[in-house]
From TrEMBL, chains A, B:
Record carries keyword Transferase: yes
Any GO BP: glycine biosynthetic process, by transamination of glyoxylate
Molecular-function GO terms, alphabetical: alanine-glyoxylate transaminase activity; L-serine-pyruvate transaminase activity
Name of the protein described by the UniProt record: Phosphoserine aminotransferase apoenzyme
Entry binding sites for substrate: 329
């Protein structure tokens, strides 16, 4: 079965070999306070920063999931007021997690085809942080790096926080365009679930120090103090960090990955636009995701399509939230082979065009 | 190298096979909202409850680590006042995490050879929770199940919370003697790090509902709502849950494991008592750990012993905290073979008794 489910998703075939290596090398038993761990953690972080072009002065840290990333940002980087821009379920969840901790968190809901109106946002001098979603996994929308950069330019007093869950390691981005980026490895990293990543700018680190929040086991200042020694606040998923090291040390440069995904996304959208009875959910090209392609159809056809695909060994992602009964999703993640994407395109084209 | 480091520790040899199976079976890519995940999560929980004799009406949940377990207990099960009984670094850390959130958390520090004076504790009707450590990994002390039961009997209004990090799946216990038990799988479960477990009694669940705390992504009520469907609040370590299922489905009954560990602990303590220049740190048999044996010696001999052991392929655990420079620790966890423990005993006996 080839899974196009957008996370947990297809893992790289070479993960099989890395798992055996981890066992053979004794990695599963090393102490997270040992020099052996420090060394593999350093290599994982350095390879990830190099391949993704994360600036030297940005800090890369481990979390247990992107949900923990939201919580850490809300806990340690906001005193009262933040603005949350989103069109889908995961952006909404990030807002809600923040709102539980700070009543001053403000939602700003976008239509799936609406770009962020950068100049017209309800932001004032007291807005400490603006959160957006680089790639909304639930509906396949995307915030471009130009828009993220424009947010930073328009509101220089605020930290810009980006939920990059289904984008990091798939889409090339300019990390200097924002202050916080958080993601999970079960999407574009092609790895098993159980590890999240958090990237912070020097400005974000300075803000954490200014706020001084240290009340939680996962307070950002605690994580920062440990990661200086390549370590973690709690016993981490050592195997996950080892797999990250292996995957990122062998990964192509992000520019190459990005080009491949964009080419395949163009192919998938062109297909969806040409098929009878199906269309891309997102019609505005400016906010279309490159990594999660969402296709709309009627409820009866939706169920039949998913069943027929499954019978061919192709697992389509279900729709999510309000789009549950009218869309399916196609992960266009780096671990998927071009031939697998081509096989899906062939199947869907034949299936949709077959005579009644 | 045979590692006697008390966590992350030696994993079961069969983990190698399970890792390959997980890859082959496509487990690494399944959605945590799929029926396939629900089924493996159900099996993992049912096998763990069966082998460890966790009562049917107690709820078993996943966390990312035992540190998260402390935080969840502090967040969701305490309004103001709790008492924390400990003699070592991890018990102290549990107190500190709670104290960050509640000024009403009170420490009660025990000597390493002191049993908990159950009848003489500073507990009153406003004490909502009493925390103790079943097995303190830092110094090799243990709270017996009789003492835990006595705490519950003496203070029936309080929840009893047990840090069972280096004990669960190693030591047989009566889970009805307390309300909360939390642990990690990189100790007695013989698994790679990256998964924690939390067990709650019906009383603890009722208290969580009464308090109604829902402000965090890992609030206990949120976890409980998900685990009813065998699911999790965030994307979990699916591979870890799969390994838990495989390990626990093939594990012997806890009574059998407990008997094996007690026999080996007796052997290790007898050795330490007989060796010249070495002695067990914990001399009071009533509070001696069965799973982490801590041996005291002078600083020079300590370094030499660790080096000589390493040269023989035996990795001793370092001392921890205040015992860092005067003790080494020997994990006596189920994944270690009797022959490996015997090898260590032979080495230490020969090493300590060799002519000057």
């Amino acid at each position: 079965m080839i899974t196009f489910f957008p996370g947990p998703s297809k893992v790289y075939d070479r993960i099989s070999e890395y798992l055996q290596d981890a066992f053979q090398e004794g990695v599963l038993s090393i102490s997270h306070r040992s020099t052996a761990f420090n060394e593999l953690s350093r290599r994982a972080i350095e390879a990830t920063k190099a391949k993704l072009h994360i600036p030297d002065d940005y800090t890369l840290m481990y979390t247990s999931s992107s949900s923990e990333g939201w919580e850490i940002v809300a806990q340690s980087l906001i005193r009262e007021k933040s603005l949350h821009l989103y069109s889908g379920s995961f952006g909404e969840r990030g807002f809600q997690y923040t709102n539980y901790l700070h009543e001053g968190a403000l939602p700003y809901v976008l239509d799936v085809n609406e770009a962020i109106p950068v100049q017209d946002l309800p932001v004032d001098d007291s807005t400490e942080l603006i959160a957006c979603v680089q790639n909304e996994t639930s509906n396949g929308t995307q915030t471009s790096v130009d828009t993220i950069r424009a947010l930073r330019d328009a509101y220089p007093q605020a930290l810009i926080s980006v939920d990059a869950t289904s984008a990091m390691a798939g889409i090339a981005t300019d990390y200097t365009a924002a202050d916080i980026w958080h993601a999970s490895v079960q999407k574009c990293f092609g790895m098993p679930a159980g590890l999240g990543l958090l990237v912070c700018s020097p400005r974000a680190v300075a803000k954490a120090e200014e706020i001084g929040e240290k009340r939680h086991y996962n307070s950002l200042l605690t994580i920062l103090k440990n990661i200086e020694k390549w370590q973690t606040n709690t016993t981490p998923n050592v195997l996950g960090i080892y797999l990250l090291m292996r995957v990122m040390e062998t990964a192509p440069d992000i520019a190459e990955v990005d080009a491949q995904l964009k080419r395949r996304a163009a192919q998938l959208y062109a297909m969806a636009e040409q098929l009878p009875h199906y269309q891309p959910l997102v019609t505005n090209h400016a906010v279309r995701s490159q990594t999660v392609v969402t296709v709309k159809t009627d409820a009866t056809r939706l169920a039949a399509t998913k069943d027929a695909a499954k019978a061919e060994g192709l697992l389509l992602g279900n729709g999510y939230g309000e789009w549950k009964d009218s869309t399916f999703r196609i992960a266009n993640f780096p671990a998927l082979l071009d031939s697998e994407v081509a096989q899906l395109v062939d199947f869907l084209t034949a299936y949709a065009n077959r005579p009644a």
